[in-house]
Amino acid sequence: MKRLLCASTFLLASTFPLPSFASGCGSVSIADMNWSSATLMAHVDKFILEHAYHCDVELVPGDTVPTTTSMVEKGEPDIAPELWSNSAKELLENGVKEKRLRFAVQSLSDGGEEGYWIPQYMVDKDPSLATIEGVKANATLFTHPEDDSKYAFYTCPAGWTCQISAGHIFDALQLKKSGFEQVDPGSGAALAATIAKAYSRQEPWFGYYWAPTAVLGKYPMVKVEFGKGTDAKHYQECITQVECKNPKPIMWPPSKVDTVVTESFATRAPDAMSYLSKRAYTNKQMNNMLAWMEDNQADGEMAMEEFMLKHKDIWSTWLTGQALQSVESAVNQL
């Protein structure tokens, strides 16, 4: 049947020229990374490329460094929807320099986000708590789970790289002088549980977290402002290092998260490349989808269907003309 369809398409094309969006894409491989936001992106891209641009799409397992290496050395897969660029910076830079790779778009438009957070309901009651000075002035709100004489700051779990940066910034902000003590939750799941518990009781909470995550999709949090801006050089050379003698109280610089494609794909499929250059998610949008995935134990395909059915306001901005009409028609049949 597939051969018959292909033959029919060829005969039609020879008699009646097809719209440009339907040609020049061919077979496309997309890296399906093993974390929720990346697998959602991969499945959304597959659906849109198939229905808008008539690509023959295959999802292949992927991970940051192996996928980047394969794209540079073998020219496959064609697309990596979510690459945390700093994790393979040298590989990516060399691939672009050698004209093997091309950056399509920053797939998380806000970048990966880290910081100190408190619950939205606390800021609603007292807007000053959105600043570190406000948190310090109200330190007594943040009761310590084991020591009544101290106040709790929930830090990144031991062994995680972020424990180093969170600890240095804790020192730079001189939070110990305000009575705070770093509380190691023991694991990522335990850290998430402290937020869930605080929310269920509408209690104060102060600590480190990151986005995009299901946790920040379920529990609205406000990132505390330090008022010092950021300094990427100091962050790399001091804040992320075990030894950092004079840490500055800077905000975390956003982590660059990109969609990367092979140069051969970008050249042979300009219409599909145009779509990818517009396709991006904010952290808020992704947080909400990750929360839905967790609540529904959804895989990438299920999440794609939910996204396409419920969020036309987002994906319709990535498409125009016949491509948009074709995707709308396909969504109506989900």
TrEMBL record:
<keyword id="KW-0732">Signal</keyword>
<dbReference type="GO" id="GO:0043190">
    <property type="term" value="C:ATP-binding cassette (ABC) transporter complex"/>
</dbReference>
<dbReference type="Pfam" id="PF04069">
    <property type="entry name" value="OpuAC"/>
</dbReference>
<dbReference type="InterPro" id="IPR007210">
    <property type="entry name" value="ABC_Gly_betaine_transp_sub-bd"/>
</dbReference>
<dbReference type="GO" id="GO:0022857">
    <property type="term" value="F:transmembrane transporter activity"/>
</dbReference>
<feature type="signal peptide">
    <location>
        <begin position="1"/>
        <end position="22"/>
    </location>
</feature>
<protein>
    <submittedName>
        <fullName>ABC transporter substrate-binding protein</fullName>
    </submittedName>
</protein>
<feature type="domain" description="ABC-type glycine betaine transport system substrate-binding">
    <location>
        <begin position="27"/>
        <end position="308"/>
    </location>
</feature>
